């Protein structure tokens, strides 16, 4: 029995080291493959140039347009997902009858298993033409609509993690508040939300890193135009969709263009990793939440 | 535990699940062995709809044969052909110096065969309600798309003094596409030249969608996609050289045939390798392809060559088959 336990412990240890190993291998691969890019790079231009056109005659390697494109889409997604997600979680936790809860959770499951390519086509073929009737300056490819759809896509992550945090509030706290004459609304505002704030922060960080890596929606509906713009009505390009565009074309494997794919991947990897780390830190004080955070992490 | 989550509460279900999975894996390995009988075509997305339509009717005529058609751009197709991953490459331009060198050697020695199968025109289009332009000359196109304009938008007022000074939103195929190479070579004098700050998409249909929804759009794509979207975009007339009578010509079969749309029209090719005797069905497919086009059995979604040219191509094909049995 004891020997079996030791073997099991050893095995589990080896497997968790393996996941770390895979991360390190990725990091090494990205770095190694992007070296030809970084070796020839003018670092000043990398961070200050407003153009990203490695595939064209006038080659410009400014990462800014890709970063702003990525962040703009994700920011819009969070603006959509956070209020909706929070109110839904509060509603499910406080008000909903059990049948409604079942129904809503079922709907959330459907959202979370919908392939992102479907969201992409919904954005391009349905929501964009619809919004164009009200916003004439909205281009066919824009950051706004994929941002909104991405927000809907990350809703399940935000709702499920926030709800777990809310459920973890001990009933004794609620009982005491009620005994002191607090209304339900007061309990929500002054007890439930502050109590689950770390969970909410962790949920938004994880949802954000999910959105950062999302590729299909933005490739289909955001256009592939890496211009530096903060106007969500215009076409833009995100880091992930650049990677996809490059891998679809026929770029030679020993070229700077090919290495730029891994340079962008590395930038995205580092950025997402930092965000995940931050989310993890925020959620850590709630023990079971940090466990949850791991379960929902996209990497 | 995993089985519970997947919805298999009983151990019998687990067993049958495992059996199913192994059966599927077995079927997959069986498929690998059959792949010799599959004809693989890849290359230009411009020829894709035509090749897809013909291979469908080919498979109806010969149910035991299988054809897989992909679209990874002309350059990508040539690369796959040189690696032997595919049997036929669809090309929207002739084999050039930028393509794998061994292919040009094979073409000279007669092992690789070039078959012209269709004409194509590149259509320059704007939003259907665009009031400022109906036609455009080559100099203006060059001015808009030139690489020295990168980062500085072109304005509609450059094309029409009466138009407001609002930027032209540009759409077009990405740099992996044969249409991009062709357009930049004809308009700017060198393949691959041109600005990089436009909405690029390897899939022509996405370019059409972009133009159809943007009042400030100007873009270009293959003729097939124009035929399928006539109402959604407005095609611009293209300048006709004074040797051909001057004026402007709209993209249509007549203008391509009589040479008035010459600036942006080109031939489409299949590149076929003739050396592997075990692949007799490749030959059969090419003959079927040409006969089908010759008899005009395909849906009217492309620009055919002149009738005599198909006879000619078929004749040449049969001769080269005799040379390389």
Q: Name the CATH architecture of chain A.
A: Orthogonal Bundle
Chain pair with largest interface: A-B, 28 and 34 residues
The geometry of chain A reads as globular
The 3D shape of chain B can be described as globular
Q: How many discrete structural domains of chain A?
A: 1
Q: What can you see in these coordinates?
A:
The complex is a heterodimer of chains A (299) and B (325). Chain A is mainly alpha-helical and 299 residues long. Chain A has 13 helices and no strands. In chain A, helix 6 runs antiparallel to helix 13 and helix 9 (197-213) runs antiparallel to helix 12. The radius of gyration of chain A is 22 Å and the shape is globular. Chain A starts with a helix and ends with a helix. The model of chain A is unreliable at 287-299 (pLDDT under 50). In chain B, strand 10 (237-239) and strand 11 form a beta hairpin. In chain B, helix 12 packs antiparallel against helix 13 (307-323). Chain B is globular, with a radius of gyration of 24 Å. The chains are: A mainly alpha (299), B alpha/beta (325).
Protein topology:
The complex is a heterodimer of chains A (299) and B (325).
Chain A: H1 2-39, H2 43-48, H3 64-94, H4 98-113, H5 116-132, H6 144-167, H7 171-179, H8 184-195, H9 197-213, H10 216-221, H11 239-248, H12 256-283, H13 287-296
Chain B: H1 2-6, H2 11-34, E1 38-43, H3 48-61, E2 66-69, H4 73-82, E3 88-91, H5 101-109, E4 112-126, E5 135-136, H6 138-145, H7 156-159, E6 169-172, H8 178-188, E7 199-200, H9 204-212, E8 217-222, H10 223-227, E9 234-235, E10 237-239, E11 248-249, H11 253-257, E12 265-273, H12 280-294, H13 307-323
Parallel strand pairs in B: 1-2, 1-3, 5-10, 6-7, 6-8
Antiparallel strand pairs in B: 3-12, 4-8, 4-9, 4-12, 10-11
Helix pairs in contact in B: 3-12, 12-13
């Amino acid at each position: 029995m004891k020997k079996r336990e030791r073997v099991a412990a050893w095995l589990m240890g080896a497997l968790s080291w393996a996941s770390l190993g895979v991360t390190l291998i990725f990091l090494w691969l990205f770095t190694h493959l992007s070296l030809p890019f970084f070796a020839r790079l003018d670092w000043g231009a990398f961070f200050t140039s407003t153009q990203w056109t490695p595939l064209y005659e006038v080659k410009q390697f400014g990462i800014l347009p890709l970063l702003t494109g990525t962040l703009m889409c994700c920011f819009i997604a969070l603006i959509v997902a956070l209020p909706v997600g929070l109110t839904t979680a509060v509603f499910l936790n406080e008000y909903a009858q059990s049948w409604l809860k079942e129904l809503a959770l079922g709907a959330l499951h459907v959202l979370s298993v919908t392939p992102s390519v479907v969201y992409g086509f919904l954005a391009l073929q349905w929501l964009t033409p619809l919004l164009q009737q009200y916003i004439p300056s909205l281009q066919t490819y824009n950051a706004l609509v994929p941002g909104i759809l991405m927000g809907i896509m990350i809703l399940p992550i935000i709702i499920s993690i926030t709800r777990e945090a809310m459920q973890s509030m001990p009933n004794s706290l609620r009982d005491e508040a009620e005994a002191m004459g607090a209304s339900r609304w007061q309990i929500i505002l002054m007890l439930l939300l502050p109590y689950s704030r770390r969970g909410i922060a962790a949920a938004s960080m994880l949802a954000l890193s999910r959105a950062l890596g999302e590729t299909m929606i933005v490739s289909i509906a955001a256009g592939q135009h890496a211009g530096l713009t903060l106007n969500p009505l215009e076409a833009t390009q995100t880091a992930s969709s650049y990677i996809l565009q490059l891998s679809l074309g026929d770029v030679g494997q020993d070229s700077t263009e090919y290495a730029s794919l891994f340079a962008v991947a590395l930038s995205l990897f580092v950025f997402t990793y930092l965000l995940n780390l931050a989310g993890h830190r925020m959620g850590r004080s709630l023990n079971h939440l940090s466990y949850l955070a791991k379960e929902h992490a996209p990497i | 535990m995993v089985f519970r989550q997947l919805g298999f509460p009983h151990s019998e279900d687990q067993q049958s699940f495992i059996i199913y999975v192994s059966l599927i894996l077995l079927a997959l390995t069986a498929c690998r062995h059959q792949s010799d009988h599959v004809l693989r075509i890849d290359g230009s997305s411009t020829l894709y709809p035509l090749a897809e339509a013909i291979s469908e009717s080919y498979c109806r005529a010969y149910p035991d044969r299988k054809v897989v058609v992909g679209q990874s751009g002309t350059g990508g197709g040539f690369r796959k052909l040189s690696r032997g991953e595919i049997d036929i490459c669809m090309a929207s331009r002739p084999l050039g110096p930028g393509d794998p060198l061994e292919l040009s050697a094979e073409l000279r020695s007669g092992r690789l065969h070039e078959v012209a199968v269709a004409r194509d025109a590149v259509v320059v289009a704007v939003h259907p309600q665009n009031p400022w332009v109906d036609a455009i000359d080559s100099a203006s196109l060059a001015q808009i798309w030139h690489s020295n304009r990168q980062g500085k938008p072109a304005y509609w007022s450059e094309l029409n003094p009466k138009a407001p000074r609002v930027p032209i939103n540009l759409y077009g195929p990405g740099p992996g596409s044969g249409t991009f190479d062709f357009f930049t070579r004809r308009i700017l004098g060198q393949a691959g030249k041109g600005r990089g700050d436009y909405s690029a998409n390897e899939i022509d249909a996405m370019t059409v969608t972009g133009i159809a929804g943007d009042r400030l759009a100007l873009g270009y794509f293959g003729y097939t996609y124009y035929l399928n979207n006539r109402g959604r975009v407005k095609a611009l007339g293209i300048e006709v050289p004074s040797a051909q009578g001057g004026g402007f010509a709209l993209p249509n079969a007549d203008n391509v045939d009589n040479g008035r749309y010459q600036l942006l029209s080109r031939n489409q090719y299949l590149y076929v390798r003739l050396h592997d005797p075990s692949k007799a069905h490749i030959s059969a497919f090419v003959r079927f392809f040409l006969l089908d086009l010759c008899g005009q059995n395909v849906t009217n979604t492309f620009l055919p060559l002149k009738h005599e040219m198909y006879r000619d191509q078929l004749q040449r094909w049969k001769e080269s088959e005799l040379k390389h049995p």
